[in-house]
Design a protein that fits this description.
By secondary structure, this protein is mostly beta strands. It has three domains: 97 residues, Immunoglobulin-like (Sandwich), CATH 2.60.40; 309 residues, TolB, C-terminal domain (Neuraminidase, 6 Propeller), CATH 2.120.10.30; 415 residues, TolB, C-terminal domain (Neuraminidase), CATH 2.120.10. 8% of the residues lie in helices and 40% in strands. The chain contains eight helices and 68 strands. A six-stranded antiparallel β-sheet has the order 4-3-6-68-67-66, with no helix packed on it. The protein has a six-stranded mixed β-sheet with strand order 36-37-38-39-44-43, with no helix packed on it. The chain is elongated. It starts with a helix and ends with a strand.
């Protein structure tokens, strides 16, 4: 029946029409009257300028289609003196453009952006540009693929090369996998998989269908990928695992979850990915490893040479976060659902006899299937037959890693030795099982990760790190990056050093490894549009045009966000928990350089209406904005924005709710994940202590007679959470709580008209459903469900100078409710001019460290992270969609047209761009905590015309 119908449609020529209608019905991030540009970029009348007298100039032109148009007045150096406007033409064209017209006339008053008359307007030029066309420009601080983010989590080798797992530091670090040949040359990134991988080889990854037939790959838990931390592999990220000794057999790489750990309770599962970057459903779904309650955040695996078994040492976390291993070797079939069983030893009984262990640390197999076990506290290496029978003991002081050569049978042990009464790291080579005598040893070498290349002409050891750990603060590793050591028969000689190569590749612009984590204050990107500079993580300064690293920057205090105005001033939002309530201002134009500390210092520029606040590792700040933000339990605030003049919009999180203390505490605690953490069994008492500290601080303020701000009580308004305050550029308060949003936001901006822009942690409704509900699923698996929607935030512009979230679930009842469908999940945005869906990453609740920062440029265009589709959305000041920049791509697609794996289209591969900023000429963003990228803001068509004096 279906085939017959299809044939009829083909005969009628309606298949394409129906496909087009289906695409038109697909949920869009904007709502009417907002629209999107037509991709037609051609002038039908070139720009002309007419002097109307009295400092009034008419700029006229005409275009072929309703594309986006950008108009500015530029000086002789090409700098924009006056931003006239930018937007999508058509029925919803923003000011100053005429609606519904392809022929335009806009006007200039002879002034610059700061409202100063230009002395010689006749020497200025008018530039009209059609069709924003960003292109990849450069990476800043890039050390190449050997500059592995975070620390090395594990290494495995086979005949095809080496597989290096790396992990970001802290509570939000992700794990990825890169492949190198045996000489250490980079060959490709396996996880995330390359953009060229066909869909049938992506089984187990989830996806979001963001446009008709277009699917964006995400991790098995898509929410963890695009809404939270950018996690891609399952159950190994953040506070779950410290490191892993991966197993490898054939084309499969094996690793596991942590089971129960400081991150809470989780299933004990064995995972796998394939060595070409493809995946299987079973590999990412996981096979059962141990019963519930098992703990192995530092698992050690090895496969039997026949591929039937995988052996494991189950290193867990003991008291005081000390690594402790059940004294046993476990074994499970490499496939099937049967859990691992004890193979050697007794997990409940340490011992020193030949069938017992005391804190085993590592294991390996030789080509005969014999099992080598580092019995750390017994000071020995134990060798067993495949059936578990003890064969030999080799005395080794505190061994913790072992690798056996697949061809010669020689084995290498990383252990601790005593030299002149001091403990030193040592690697000892033993000849073979038949003759387990020492061949040689090398002192002052140690490793947390070790793999052996048995296929190179001379044996090569791949090593990295010193110590790996995981605790309530997250996971991390110390020590060097990857080094390769070649065995010349007498000693080990360094063959390759990844850090040395990365440092050489970056030269003077090397700033170290990227974090592999991009949450909270870390990873912030702020551009200085007057100097074409960019600040990375607040402290590192780059020249955007040249890519040169200019140095480190220091200004006093502990701060969360910064913003730049067109006067070149830097506005700094302090952290009220670790510092004081306040926004301070500095002038990079008066910077001084301390050659001893090798840092730039900026002088404070007090706001005229500012107040003095105490110093924090510094003298008192003389003129800070008197904001009323409260630390709650999380301390940090969520954004500051300034317009070109230097007017300020700043987020103030408020948790003090008199007579509704539980409501305020609930808001404060939910913003730090305590409820979520408790539900998952991972409560971190230090966060609770922060809230207690906040309560003490509030009590101290009250005793001193200081005002403690609370949100005014209005029907339907939240009484705790995010508010937005606005100030004039002289520091005078404009509107307290101009925005009452509740929960948390992700960034705030303001324009020259006093409108405020922000991201709320509430999905936008499209019709009667959340944006993209039912458009999710798993490759090779099933849909998440017809009502399941990817969690994304909503980007909002205020209609006037005040805006508020309204809900039926607030202490002050909302009566009557607004006479329209809900704007976002569970409520309405009162005072919104428009709302744009899909802002991500942003979380619904719990720990709000995973966040983003959109960029509002001086043409009033917003660049918004769209993690759900691996892109950056661009909207004009009327909410029209200009374009989506980029598409899915891993490291191999991060270099534009010169990428190893090209993505087509605009050739901009993205994974999770969180923090975005820019200038008139460039867009800068941090992507997945692994790179700082620069795009050049080019256009499809451009014309300039001299103003001319009359």
């Amino acid at each position: 029946m279906m085939n017959k119908l299809l044939m009829q449609l083909v005969a009628l020529g309606l298949v394409g029409t129906i496909a087009s209608l289906a695409a038109d019905d697909f949920p869009k991030p904007y709502s009417a009257p907002c629209t999107e540009r037509e991709n037609v970029f051609e002038f039908t009348e070139k720009p002309s300028v007419k002097n109307l007298g009295n400092d009034r100039y008419e700029i006229s032109f005409a275009v072929k289609g309703n594309c986006d148009v950008t108009v500015g007045v530029i000086d002789g150096d090409g700098r924009v003196a006056k931003h006239i406007g930018s937007g999508v033409l058509g029925a919803n064209a923003p000011a100053p453009f005429q609606k519904g017209s392809l022929k335009q006339a806009v006007y200039w008053n002879g002034k610059d952006d700061l409202d100063n008359y230009i002395k010689e307007p006749g020497k200025m030029r008018i530039r009209v540009m059609l069709g924003l066309k960003p292109e990849f420009d450069k990476l800043l601080g890039d050390g190449g693929p050997k500059n592995l983010p975070g620390y090395v989590w594990g290494i495995a080798c086979d005949a095809k090369g080496a597989y290096v797992f790396y992990k970001g530091q802290g509570s939000h670090g992700h794990v990825g996998i890169k492949k190198f040949d045996r000489d250490g040359n980079y060959t490709g990134t396996l996880v995330p998989p390359p953009a060229s991988m066909p869909e049938e080889k992506l089984a187990g990854w989830s996806y979001v269908e963001y446009e008709q037939g277009k699917k964006a790959l995400q991790g098995p838990d898509g929410h963890d990928s695009f809404a939270r931390d950018g996690f891609i592999l399952p159950e190994v990220n953040g506070k779950k695992t410290a490191d892993c000794q991966p197993g490898i057999y054939g084309d499969r790489l094996f690793f596991s979850s942590a089971g129960t750990s400081v991150a809470g309770t989780a299933p004990s599962l064995l995972y796998s990915v394939l060595t070409d970057g493809s995946t299987e459903l079973r590999g990412l779904k996981g096979l059962p490893l141990f019963p519930p309650g098992a703990s192995h955040p530092l698992p050690r695996f090895v496969t039997s040479p026949d591929g039937k078994w995988i052996y494991m040492i189950q290193i867990g976390m003991g008291k005081g976060n000390v690594n402790q291993s059940p004294p046993a070797v476990f074994r499970r079939a490499i496939d099937g659902d049967a859990m691992a069983q004890v193979h050697i030893g007794d997990p409940k009984k340490p011992g020193s006899d030949n069938q017992s262990f005391n804190d085993p640390k590592s294991l390996d197999c030789d080509s005969q299937g014999r099992i080598y076990v580092c019995d750390y506290s017994n000071g020995r290496l134990q060798i067993f037959a495949a059936d578990g029978k003890h064969l030999k003991t080799v005395v080794v002081d505190r061994p913790h890693l072992v690798r056996v050569h697949a061809k010669t049978g020689a084995f290498y042990v990383v252990h601790t030795a005593r030299v002149q009464g001091q403990s030193v790291g040592r690697i000892t080579k033993f000849k073979s099982f038949d003759d387990p005598s020492e061949d040689f040893h090398v002192d002052n070498l140690t490793a947390a990760a070790l793999a052996l290349d048995s296929w190179s002409p001379k044996p090569r050891l791949w090593m990295a790190g010193e110590i790996s750990y995981v605790d309530t603060g997250g996971a991390g590793g110390t020590g060097p990056g990857v080094t390769i050591w070649e065995d010349d028969g007498k000693t080990l000689k360094k063959f390759n050093d990844f850090t040395e190569d990365a440092t050489k590749a970056a030269g003077a612009n090397y700033v170290g490894r990227f974090s592999g984590s991009s949450v909270g204050p870390g990873g912030k990107v702020i551009c200085d549009g007057t100097r074409e500079e960019v600040y990375w993580e607040h402290t590192m300064l780059f020249d955007i045009r040249t890519g040169a690293f200019k140095g480190h920057v220091k200004y006093p205090g502990v701060y969360d966000d910064t913003a730049m105005d067109k006067r070149g001033y830097l506005h700094v939002h302090l952290n009220p928990g670790f510092d004081n309530q306040g926004v301070t201002r500095y002038d990079p134009g008066q910077r001084t350089y301390n050659s001893g500390e090798k840092v730039f210092y900026y002088p404070e520029i007090p706001y005229d209406y500012g107040v003095e606040i105490p110093g924090c590792y510094s003298p008192p700040r003389k003129g800070a904005l008197p904001v009323k933000d409260q630390p709650g339990a999380k301390f940090f605030q969520d954004g500051i924005g300034v317009n070109m003049r230097g007017d300020v919009a700043v987020n103030c999180n408020i948790y003090y709710v008199p007579k509704f203390e539980d409501y305020g505490k609930d808001a404060a605690m939910s913003s730090t994940a305590i409820k979520d953490m408790a539900a998952r069994g991972e409560y971190n008492s230090t966060i609770g202590n922060k809230y207690a500290e906040y309560e003490r601080k509030m009590a101290d303020w009250a005793k001193r007679g200081e005002e403690i701000y609370s949100i005014p009580r209005r029907p339907g308004h939240p009484l705790a959470g995010a508010t937005i305050w606005t100030f004039n550029n002289n520091g005078e308060l404009k509107t307290q709580s101009a925005g009452v949003i509740g929960m948390h936001i992700a960034g705030v901006q303001t324009d020259e008209d006093g409108k405020i822009y922000f991201v709320t942690a509430r999905p936008k409704y499209v019709g009667d459903k959340a944006f993209l509900a039912g458009r999710t699923g798993t490759f090779g698996g099933s849909s998440w469900g017809p009502e399941k929607a990817p969690f994304t935030g909503t980007y909002v512009k205020s209609r006037d100078k005040e805006v508020a979230y309204l809900s039926l679930n607030t202490p002050i009842p909302l009566e009557p409710k607004p006479p329209r469908p809900k704007d976002v999940v569970d409520g309405w945005i009162e005072g919104a001019e428009w709302a744009y869906a899909g802002a991500s990453p942003i979380v619904a609740g719990g720990c709000t460290c995973p966040t983003m920062r959109p960029h509002l440029d001086w043409y009033k265009r917003t660049f918004i992270s769209e993690g759900y589709r691996h892109s950056i959305g661009v909207v004009d000041s009327n909410g029209n969609l200009v374009m989506h920049i980029g598409q899915y791509g891993n490291y191999d697609s991060w270099h534009g047209p010169k990428s190893k794996v090209r993505v087509g289209g605009d050739e901009i591969g993205l994974f999770l761009p969180r923090m975005i900023s820019g200038t008139d000429n460039y867009l800068c963003f941090q992507d997945w905590g692994e790179r700082l990228a620069v795009l050049k803001l080019n256009y499809h068509a451009e014309e300039t015309v001299l103003v001319k004096a009359e």
